[in-house]
Write a structure and sequence with these properties.
By secondary structure, the protein is an all-alpha fold. 69% of the residues lie in helices and 0% in strands. Its EC number is 3.1.11.6.
């Protein structure tokens, strides 16, 4: 059994894209948003059993989390880009930081 564990660890080390899969959402932002919109429409239309409604609700929560992950990643990238492009003497002097959002 220990061999399986070390093999899995080696696979994660060799392929960083798969190792980071838990951090980066499987769906694109647009795909997740579109599916979330569909889930909301189905829930609002009614006529579903409680079990179906709960399953859709849970899927909607997952999709909303995926969208939020993409948005947080985009915010972080924008913040880094703005810091890199900011002039050295931006006049803030430690005061309020200018945020793009």
């Amino acid at each position: 059994m220990a061999k399986k564990s070390s093999t899995a660890e080696a696979a994660e080390t060799e392929n960083p894209e798969q190792a980071g899969a838990a951090e980066e959402p499987e769906l694109s932002y647009e795909e997740a948003r579109e599916e979330l919109d569909s889930v909301v429409r189905r829930l609002e239309s009614g006529g579903l059993t409680l079990k179906e409604s709960l399953a859709l609700w849970e899927r909607g929560e997952q999709l909303a989390k995926t969208c939020e992950q993409w948005l947080e990643g985009a915010r972080a990238k924008l913040a880094v880009a703005m810091e890199e492009n900011a002039p050295e003497g931006n006049g803030n002097g430690g005061g309020e930081a200018e945020t793009p959002f």
